[in-house]
Task: inverse folding
């Protein structure tokens, strides 16, 4: 056990699907897993272990933001011997090619925050996802005839829609970062995985279209992300 996770060793599977929202974790467990067991409910951060088809997996919430993702993913990798985490979440779209409810596969992420410096005394602001996991996701997407856009994200420490002037934030992004979306968790996840010799990937669904306008409803954000969820779940079958 850790201060944030009451599961015993062995109750967390080697592969974890990680939404941000505890309600989404519960929804996934109830809808898709057989023999699902609630193995953590500390602070309401629900984790369920069960079987998707014949694959034993865990679905666990991460909460919002890098600090929360940093804690939960670090503990899963370090103390529960998890090998793979696939984050499934939402994002704001910043690409002409993206519309509401489109799917993004993240290959790298940039933050101007100091997560790496604080955790590991490393002045690092770019983190890569696992090429191995991304290849498995892309193979699965092809088999499912599932469309997605692969690209970089900005991992911010504030919700971009609440920024006083998001244009000033975007001006500070290095020119070599060809970002397609903005989210709040991927950097901490990828950095932890790379630090600890593990694998992490991130799938996102666009819920705020920042170029063309439009926002998904709270109900859409909680319940109508099934294509992304099923892509992540089906990917676990090849791990």
Result:
């Amino acid at each position: 056990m850790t201060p944030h996770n009451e599961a015993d060793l062995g109750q967390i599977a080697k592969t974890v699907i990680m939404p941000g929202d505890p309600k989404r974790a519960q929804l996934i467990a109830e809808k898709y897993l057989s023999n699902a067991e609630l193995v953590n409910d500390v602070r309401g951060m629900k984790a369920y272990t069960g079987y998707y088809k014949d694959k034993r997996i865990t679905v666990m919430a991460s909460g919002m933001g890098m600090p929360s993702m940093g804690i939960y993913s670090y503990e899963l990798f370090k103390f529960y011997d998890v090998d793979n985490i696939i984050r499934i979440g939402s994002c704001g779209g910043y690409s002409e090619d993206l519309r509401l409810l489109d799917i993004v596969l993240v290959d790298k992420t940039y933050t101007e925050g100091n997560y790496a410096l604080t955790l590991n005394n490393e002045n690092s602001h770019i983190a890569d996802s696992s090429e191995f996991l991304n290849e498995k996701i892309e193979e699965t997407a092809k088999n499912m005839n599932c469309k997605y856009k692969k690209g970089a994200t900005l991992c911010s420490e504030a919700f971009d829609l609440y920024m006083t002037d998001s244009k000033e934030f975007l001006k500070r992004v290095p020119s070599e970062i060809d970002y397609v979306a903005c989210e709040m968790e991927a950097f901490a996840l990828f950095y932890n995985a790379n630090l600890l010799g593990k694998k992490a990937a991130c799938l996102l669904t666009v819920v705020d279209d920042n170029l063309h306008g439009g926002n998904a409803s709270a109900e859409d954000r909680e319940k109508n992300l099934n294509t992304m969820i099923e892509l992540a779940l089906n990917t676990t079958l090849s791990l």
User: Anything to note?
Assistant: The domain at 15-236 is CATH 3.40.50.1580 (Rossmann fold). The chain has one domain: 15-236. The chain has a mean pLDDT of 95.
